[in-house]
Amino acid sequence: MELIDLMRTAPLRFSVLGPVGLAQDGEPIDLGTPQQRAILALLLVRAGRWVGAAEFVELLWASDPPPSATNLVHRHISTLRRVFEPDLATRAPGRWLLRDGNGYRLTVGAADLDLLRFRELVDQANEALDRDDPARGATLFVEALGLWTNACASGLESVIADPSPFRAIDQERSAAAVTAADAALLSGRSEAVLPAVRAAAAADRLNEPLQARLLRLLGAVGQQGEALRLYRGLSGTLADELGIEPGAVMYEARMEVLRQTERSASTRDRPIVRPAQLPTDLRTFGGRRHELAQLADVLDRLSADGPGVITIDGMPGTGKTTLAVHWARRQAERYPDGQLYVDLRGFAPDAAPLDPAEVLRGFLDALGLPPRRIPDSVEAQARLFREVLAGRRVMVVLDNARDSDHVRHLLPGSPGNLAIVTSRRSLTGLATAHQMTLAPLSPEEARETLVRRLGSTRLADAGQAVDQIIAYCAGLPLALAIVAARAVAHPGFPLDAIADELARSQPTLDALRGGTDVRAVFSWSYRMLDPSSARLFRLLQLHIGPDVSVPVAASLLGGSPAAVREQLAELARNHLITESHPGTYRMHGLVRGYALDLSAELDSAKDRQSAVGRMLDHYLHTAHAAHALLRPQREPIPLPPARPEVVILRPSDYSQAMDWFSAHHRVLADAVGRSVTEGLPSHAWRLALALQPFYQRSGHLHQWESTARIAVDGAVAGSDVTGEAHTRRSLAGALNFQGRYDEALAELARTRDLYAQLGLTADQAYVDINFGTVLGALGRFVEAIGHHQQARERFRVAGHRVGEANAIVSIGWCRARLGELAQAAADARAAMRIYEEVAEQQGVADCWANLGDVTHRLGRYPEAAEAYGRAIDLFRALGHRADQALALVHQGDSQLASGRRCAAWEAWTTAWGLLDGLNSPLAGELRRRLDSLGEPDSLGIHRL
Fold this sequence. Notes:
By secondary structure, the chain is of the alpha/beta class. It has five domains: 12-204, Arc Repressor Mutant, subunit A (Orthogonal Bundle), CATH 1.10.10; 289-437, Rossmann fold; 443-526; 531-603, Winged helix-like DNA-binding domain superfamily/Winged helix DNA-binding domain (Arc Repressor Mutant, subunit A), CATH 1.10.10; 633-638 and 649-939, Serine Threonine Protein Phosphatase 5, Tetratricopeptide repeat. 63% of the residues lie in helices and 6% in strands. The strands form four sheets. A five-stranded parallel sheet has the order 8-9-10-7-11, with helices on both faces. It has a three-stranded antiparallel sheet with strand order 1-2-3, with no helix packed on it. Strands 4-6-5 form a three-stranded antiparallel sheet. Strand 2 (21-24) and strand 3 (27-28) form a beta hairpin. It is flat and about 105 Å long.
C-alpha cells in the first residue's frame, strides 16, 4: 500500500516534442484515444496558459464540428484528469488540470514539460551568446535540441484538423537550430552540433536558412561532398514542389562549401604556414614575477572546451606590450603551429584603430591562404580564421586594443589556441577572458630592472641615488630604460650625478594624467641629443603610422638616408625609439606625446607642414613607381614634382612592387586621409589610384572602397573635378568587385558626367568599358554590348588601339553568351589583328582563348582544342601560369568532347600541376575530373 501511494505521488513528466507522452518514474502512462492525446497536445503547447473549448473544437474539427463537439471535448478532458490523478474526487479541482469558465489550463513547469525545458535552455544559450561565449551557447543548444524526438505532436495527423499550433512549435526548433549552427561555426564546435541540426533540417526540408546552416556545418567538418549533394537535392525539391530556385542564403552557403573544398588541399592535406610574428623580446626584462606566475597558472587552468583568452590592461607606460611579448615568447613552444602579432593602434593619436577585417586578412595571408580565398565580410573572414585554426595550436597577440568589440572577431574559436590582448582599458566585454591589470613596477622590481641594465656593482656603490632615480621614474619601465641608457652611455658618471640631473630637470609640460610625471626623464634624455637628432626626434611624431623606415624618416627630416640611419640608431640607444624590425623603428605613445609637445613649442608651423609634405611626397611617388610595375600598359597620371630632399623608392619588378604595397597599404590608406586634412587633395586621389591595382589583386575590397570614398570627398571639398572623376571610377570598381552592381552603376553614371565635363575622351571610353563589365555581370548582355561599342568608337577616335581591341574583345564575350557565336569569333579575330599590330601578346593570347571558347560552343571541338593550344603557348611564353592553366582546362574539355580521352587526361594533368602550385580553387575539381577518367593505364598512358 505504501509503495502504491508513493507511485501516485511521484512527479509526472509530459512530452510534446515528438509524440505526445506522459510518464511517471520513467514508466509511460496510457493517454487513451487519439482525440484525448490531441487535446493534451494543445494544452501542452499552450504551456500553462488557458485554452478555451472553442480552440479544442477548432483543433479537432476545424469548420465542420458535430453538434456535440463541446460535450465531447469536456468528456475527453474529464478522462484526462482521471489519467493524471486516478484517486481524484469528483468535482475536486486537481493538481494538474484546472478549469475556469469555459477554459482549461495544465499547470506545468520546465521540470514537468520538455517544451518548457527546451525554451529554458534556449534562453540560457542566447544569454551565453550575449556574453560572447559561443562555445557555451553551442553546448546548451545541443542539449535543448536533444529533447526533440520528432515533429511536435507527431502521430496525431489523422485526428488534427488544424495543425498550426504545433507547426509554430516546430519553427521554434528550426530557429534554435539556425542559431546553434551559427554558434558552432563561431566556436569551432561544428561536429558537436551537426547531429541536432541535421535532425531539425530533415524535419523542415524547405527552410532555406536552416538548410544553409546544415551545408555550412557539413563543410566545416570536412563533409563537403555530402553538403553539395544536399544542395542539389534541395534544389530539385524546391523546383518540383514550389517551382523556384534556391535563394541567396543557400547560394552563399554553397559557395562557402566550395571554398572549403578548395581549402581542404592547402589547409588540411598540406602543412599550414607557421607564422612567427612576435616582436623581439627585451633582453633586460626584469621583475613581474607575480604577473608571470599568474599567467602561467592561467595557462595551466585553461578550459579544454574552448580557446584561451588573456587580457592585460593598465595605464600607458606600464609595460603591457613588453610583458605580453616576453611571456608569449617563453610559451611559444607550446604553440608550434605559429604565433601571430598585430598592433591594433587602438589609441594612436594620428589614425583610426585598425579595422578587424584588415587584421583578419593579414592573419589569413600570414597563415598561407591566397587572397582570392579570403571573403570580403568580417564575419566570413572570422569564420574562415577559426576554421583554419581548428585542430591547431596557434598563439595570437592582439596589442593595443581599443575595446572588446575591437578584438571580438579576432579571437580563435577552438581549443588549443591562445589569444593575449593588451589594452589601456579593462576589456570586461570579453566575459570568458582571464583578466590582469598591470600596475607600475614596485620599488624592488624597479631596482631589479636597473640591476639587469647596469649591474649590481654599480648600483651597490650608488646609495640613495638609486632610490631617487626610481622615484623620478615612477615605476614606469620606459622611464627606467631611458635613465639606464644614459648611465650605460657614460659608465664614468656616478649614479648620484644622474640623480642630481634628474632633480634639476624641471618639466616644461603638463604632467601625465593620474599624477605621474615622467616627462622630466624624457626631457633629460632629449637634452643629450645633438641638434639634428633632436630635430628628427621631434618630427618623427608627425609620421602617420606606428613604424617608420629610414627612407621615410629621411624624407621627414630632409636629410640623407645614411645620416638619418645613424640618428635613428642614436635615438634607439637612448630608448626614445625602439627598432621593431631591422631598419624599422617605433615610438612609444608616451614618448610620442612628449615629442608632439616639443615640436609644437620649438618647430614652426611651416617646418612641420614641410615635413609632412615631404613624407606624403615620399609615399605618393614611391606608390606611383610601384603602381607602374603593376599596370605597365596604362598611361600614368601626371604627378606634381616631389619637394627637394624627398627619398623615393623604386621597386625593380612586379614582385617587389606587390611586396611594398603589402607592407605599407595601411599607412598609405592613412596617408590618403592625411593628405585631405593637410589641404593636399591631389595627393589624396593620386595615392588612392596608385593603391587600386594592389587592392584589386590582393582582395582588400573594403579598404579599397573606404580609401576611394575619402579621396572622393577630398576632391569634392577641394573642387578638384579631375580627381573626383578618377576616384569615383575607382570607387565604382570597388563596388563592382563586391557584387554591389547597382551602386557601381550609379558611381559610373556620375563619373561619365564628370569626364564629359572635362572632355577626357579616352577616360570616357574606359567608363563605357566599365559599364559594360557591370551590366555583363548582371546578365544584361545587350546593354553591355552597347556600352562596349561606344567605348570602341571613343578609343578609335582617340587613336587608342589597345583600348579599341579591349572593347572588341568585350563585345565578343557578350555575343558568345547571347549565342551569336559567328560574330563572337569575328570579334576575337578583329581584336587579335590589332593586338598583333601593337605587339600586345597578352591580348593575342586572350583572343585565342576566346576563339577556343566560341568554337567549342559551336561543337567544333578539335578546332577549339587547337585554338586553346595557341593560347597556351603564348601564356607559357609570357610566364602567366594561371592563364595557361585555365586554357589547359578548357582544352581538356574540348579534347574530351571530341573523344580524345588521353589528350584530355594530359591537358588536365598539366593544368592540375600548375593550379595546385598556385593554390587554385580549380585544382580540386580537376582532380575529380581526372579520377572520373580512370587510371592512366586504362587510357593507354603509361607512367614512367
